[in-house]
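Closing statement on the 6-O-phosphono-beta-D-fructofuranose sub-project.
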Amino acid sequence: MTTSSLGKLYPAWRKLEKHKEELLRFNLCAAFDCHPERADIFSVDAAGITLDYSKNLITEKTLTLLCELADQANLKTAINDLLTGKPVNNTEKRPALHTALRDPQHNCPDSEAVRTTFVRMEQMVNAIREGDWLGHTGQRISDIVNIGIGGSDLGPKMVCHALEPYRLDTLKCHFVSNVDPSHIDEVLRQVKPESTLFIVASKTFTTLETLKNAEAAKRWLLLHAPGNAVEKHFVAVSTAIDKVTDFGIDKENILPLWDWVGGRYSLWSAIGLPIAIATGMENFRLLLKGANAMDQHFSQANFSGNMPVILGLLGIWYSHFWQAQSHAVLPYDHQLTLFPDYLQQLDMESNGKSVNRNGEAIDYTTGPVIWGTEGTNGQHSFHQLLHQGTRFIPADFVVPLQTHMSNKDQHRHLVANCFSQSQALMAGKTRIQIETELAAQGLTKQQIDFLTPHKIITGNRPSNTLLLKTLCPESLGALIALYEHKVYVQSVVWNINAFDQWGVELGKQLSKPLYEALSGRPNTQIKADDSLDASTRKLVKAYLQNNHSDQNS
Ligand code: F6P
């Protein structure tokens, strides 16, 4: 193995490389046989969550070395920098102070404005929930449509879905994000202009998808209502107050946020308005409280007992020393269906980087591909590859132990499946077990010899299990904060900035002249066909051939 620059930077890296060689024959089942106490040793409780990480390819020495690595990366200082508002986002010269939003004691640069905003948010929430906020014909609000994308969509949408059992029955929440007109159309067909409130959520208020969808929603409303209806049917959350008022939304209906709240870390701000409207301000506060409990743990616990630090370091262990390319997230709760989607932005937009904080190209891998779906659907889809495929994919199982549903028996099946999956990944199935089973079924020796290799499951595949007592606002807040901090821990060891996302910009820039070309407009930035590569030119031509008559619609 060639050592990356991290090996030169951190003495513990070299030790971990050597240690990995010692673990080449490590067997998880044998480790449990020799040390049944490893289930207790490799387990940690924080903020109402239990992490069982005993089914990992680690020994106590691994953990010690990983903690040494964290020390050498000055993680303690980096955690303090994050939580005290140092400009950890160094390319944009900003703090990433989302943790301040969930800490009632925190003195952030805009503490007074934060407090006032939460008070205004609460007034808005109560007025809507109690039926005091009326639409232009005097009807109460029955449907909320959040128009936003990325962090202004994924977080609130995931939480609203997760907290469905806490939703006020008389209020439905919809989310529109995609610029594809069928998305907004699909939602508008389900709601009525007299009783719908649109939330335009955009930190910058420049995001194409959000602006186009907001314009479409406004046009739709004004088809059915007088011009002054906009003030009763549109609110916004943004840093760009002027742009929002130019769009036509009343100043009184705008809740601000601040540049120190990153898009993918913004659900704790007024971007969480749909959550607060759906579940009530008290539940929104409990969500913040749960996240704050995880923040406290993150800032205070020793590395060897620090849940986000352990998850982050295990990810690094597998990425670098076991060459894992991806990480599966498998929630065993239908309400957490959107959790993997949410984590994709959180993790991949944060740590999908190839230069370090100084802008130097790096020679090691950074953020893994995050993917997954809710159990047991994944079991009948991609788990085959987890069990018998050639790729090495560590997985996180997330499971609440109590359900809000009355059908406890069906829930027991769900939990049994969750536990059996991590067990199967670890234990696999040996040649002897299979041969004995097939012989008992009466198969011939020839049949047994043929089938056995197909049925062998090697096992020894690692996973974490996260247990929540129940999926409630507090435990969900803690779970989200746990992953936010895991991502930060990894960025510190990799010496990258987790809080910018320059890579997203190029596609946005290129789409503008292409839009002009698709509109068939001459003299655009795409001067004549020759400024385009041959493939893109052919794609544009195909579009134009199929749309020549309706370019202005
Ligand atoms: O996808 C890029 C991005 O900049 C995200 O970081 C952000 O969450 C999203 O766009 C939406 O941005 P805005 O809230 O400014 O509309």
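The pocket of 6-O-phosphono-beta-D-fructofuranose is lined by residues 149-152, 202-204, 207, 210, 263-264, 349, 501, 504 (CB under 6 Å). With this model delivered, the sub-project is considered complete and its resources will be redirected to Aim 3.
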